[in-house]
Task: structure prediction
Amino acid sequence: MYTTQLLDVVTTAGVLYIVAVGLLVVYGVLKIINLAHGAFLAMGAYAGVLTTWAGWNPWTALLLAAVMGVAVAALVEWRVLRALYARPLDTILATWGLNIIVVQILTLYFGREIHFVESAIAQPISVAGVTYSQYRLVLFVIAVALGIFVWLVMQRTQVGVVAQAVIMNEELAQALGINTRLVRFVTFCLGAGLASLAGALLTPLVSVHPNLGVPWLINAFMLVLVAGVSLGNLALAALVLGGAQVLVSSYGNPVLGSLTIVILAVIILRFRTITI
Amino acid sequence: MRKSSRTLVALALILGVAMLLGGAAQSADKQPVVIAVPVGLSGVNSVVAPAVVQSAELAVEELNAKGGIMGRPVKLMPLDDESGPAGAVKAFNTAIRQHKADVIITMETSAARNAGAPIADRAKTLFIYTSFYEGRACGKYLYVNAWVPEQIVSPLVKFMTDQKKVKKWFVLGSDYAFGRGLIEPAKKMITQLGGTILGEEYQPLQQSDWTAIISKIRAANPDGIMYATSGGGPNIDFMKQFKAAGLKMPVGSLSIDELTAEQGGNAAEGVYYTADYFTSIDNPENKTFLGAMKKKFGANLKTPNSLSEPEYDGIYAYAMAVEKAKSTDADKVAAVLPTIVFKGPRGAVQMNKQHHAPLPVYLAQVQADGKTKIIQSFGLVDPGNQCPNLK
Result:
């Protein structure tokens, strides 16, 4: 029983982390909440549908999703967002608009009906005497790997270090001759690519429809609000909030469980000292 | 002079009135019978709504080819109820006031039906509801030709108890009217048959991660489970996660349908469910119906299912009732409707039990390729006491 719950907690945290990390990256550097995050998730999920239709290996969906996400993000950043950075409130409108446009295009092409994606791993596995979903465990491993990957990008690459400078003090970074325009471009693409990747990773668990991103966007948004701009904080927030959700669902009921993340986020925000 | 002019005026008046009357009478003859179909073309029902409209289109085309209803052409009026109450109010008012609908025959969400039915009732417009639902919707002008829980739940619970030896159950559902409305009678039936319920859980509608409930099922270790999610995708989400977690007990579903099972590939393999309509029902009426649907819609055909097929039956039942009553007057049609038997793809359907219909019920199991195989027929199952205050 406790093993199962422990597994439930860590894998749920893993899923939440995967879904939220792209949003956090964009929020950290660009200081905007990418409300199109849900649309990028949906796009990634449909990459899974395309892969299933084509009969390719289910893992290729990840690559396809990331490429699609980055391509759309590059176009949008270049033509739309770039002009709006001086007007942060308008970026909310712009990204929400982008969300609607992407969702409608997906609806036009794929229809409103629900699609299903082939799972790469559908078998259960035995862990410490408990039969458990192997895919959820794989997701947890992927979450850790993604965390390390993004952390390495931020700490060990030129772009990452420059991005950190932009996070800390944008005017100063600009004055030092850092090309903040490029940093913003790369970050937005990275964030959207991560979001689409997350969408593709979710599809073996859930069915695909154009609005599948919305409930995930809300949870990711709460996590990012709590975590601020730190990857470590995000992992912690995913563990605490996701864990609380699982435990409340297990010992209470899932209806209360679904409220947990939102309620905890509000409480934490009330007492946390703002550091941004 | 004066007298003759007065006669002339009177004559002209009489002629005029006669012409008007004649014209009116003539146009009443040719005036179409308007069948309104407010259905969820947008919103949650948008997956199934096109199939409902297709069923209606075929029925109307066939009726018109045979000369319409009482010689009057039949006009179909599909409207969008947005799958909810606000849209239904608009759609019903538009149908009744603007398009002067003679009848409303449609499949809707329970929320939309609850909003629309009083409007039809006040306007004294006949309303034939063709969606399976949680039961006990009653009204003088409201008739239902699809299943209620009594018809579907009992046979399934009974089968799993007797054949699959399920004594200890876990029941779960989506947290809304339909999910809870179907789990409630299932629980009653389980206890009646001597079974015990180890756990009962409901999941919020928008939540697609079933992990917590699956862990509870694993901990409770029941002989079998019975679930009622919302229609479509959630069935497959749940079954996928259930199997990926390595759980193997027999599963009875109160919410899966043929189309969803097929789209889900092998996800729902082994799931038992009961319904009144399957494409594989082996009778000549069903074969003719499916053939005509394929011919009319070709590649655009939405697979007919237990939510869409009753629309076809409903329109035929109405047409036969009007012919028998020799009028489209709602009171007259309502008076004869319970006597009408339409032998359609599901078999003979008659709405003679408190405005509901005894229906042929079948037990089926999802196969490895997602196709549904009928494994048992229960014959006609009575809807029970749905509206004791109605005849």
Q: What stands out?
A: Chain B touches chain A at residues 42, 46-47, 175, 201-204, 206-209, 211-213, 215-216, 218-219, 232-234, 236-237, 240-241, 243-247, 260, 263-265, 267 (CB under 8 Å). Chain B has a mean pLDDT of 90. Chain B has two domains: 32-147+280-357, 150-275.
